[in-house]
Amino acid sequence: MDFKVGNHSNSGNASEPSSSGSPGLPHGPVFGPAANVAGEEIDAQRALYGSERPSRLRDYLVFGALLTATLTTTFLAGGFLFAVSLILILGSHEFGHYWASRKNRVNASLPYFIPAPPMFIAGTFGAFIRIKDPIPDRRVMMEIGAAGPIAGFIVAIPTLIAGLFMSRVTEGVHLRGLSFGSSIVLSVFSRMILGVDPLSPDVNIELHPVAFAGWIGMFVTALNLLPIGQLDGGHIIYSLFRVRYNILAKVFFVLLFPLGYYWTGWWFWALLIALFGFQHPPLMDESAVLEKRHKIMGYIAVIIFLLTFTPIPFTVVM
What we know:
Layout: E1 2-5, H1 39-49, H2 56-78, H3 80-103, E2 112-115, E3 124-131, H4 138-165, E4 168-171, E5 177-180, H5 184-194, E6 203-206, H6 209-224, H7 232-240, H8 245-259, H9 265-276, H10 292-308, E7 314-317
Parallel strand pairs: 1-3
Antiparallel strand pairs: 2-3, 4-6, 5-7
Helix pairs in contact: 2-3, 3-4, 3-6, 4-5, 4-6, 4-7, 4-10, 6-10, 7-8, 7-10, 8-9
């Protein structure tokens, strides 16, 4: 779902690596300023703070085992097409992070897929990668942070479109169960493909498993783009607006409380944020200025968040 930055410290000051994909993870110690974070000096900094480089064979074995387990649980939850579609979306998101990390010579794990009991809605709790090096500067942070959501969104869009073509529209009869909310992108494509408004009480859209995988992909993308802590959105907003990051994160935190009246899950997220805090992990060089292309990536990610955010994701219909 997101990428996590491990903590690093000088010898003699032990620190625990990040161990959760939740928002507002504990942050590492402050690193000393770097006058030049390119080339050999980046490698020197990483050697000083200690880069973890475990066996590549172990990485591949863990990746393969978790991928197999998650394919199994998602297959049991929604069938073959659902499982493949959802894994493609989640995998594209995480490999976007992974590719950007490798491009910038930042050591990162392969994606860790997290299986869940099949009775859970999707059969998975998502996926993440673990960053094992300190991040050099805001440019690299932006590339790694934004690459995942953008890649996942690019795969989720055609998945949702294809799934909607295979979905059915029925009369809006009162059915008990779980009702799924709508984002801007779902509303637009539902009108274009099915000719109906998904928020209308007069119709029910019976989502095909592929469309449901697309819906989950959009929902997960929006959750990861929440502008807080070590979520992708936290990295992106910190890179774009470093000085104003704390204010923006706290404003969004406050907005979760009124949203919680419509879906109590937002209160759970607010609790996690309160427990783990708002502070973003420090970078090796805080002074680097974003180039135009990095700003464009950041604004694209913000637009994706607005298009995929679902204020009321789930409603229990009694």
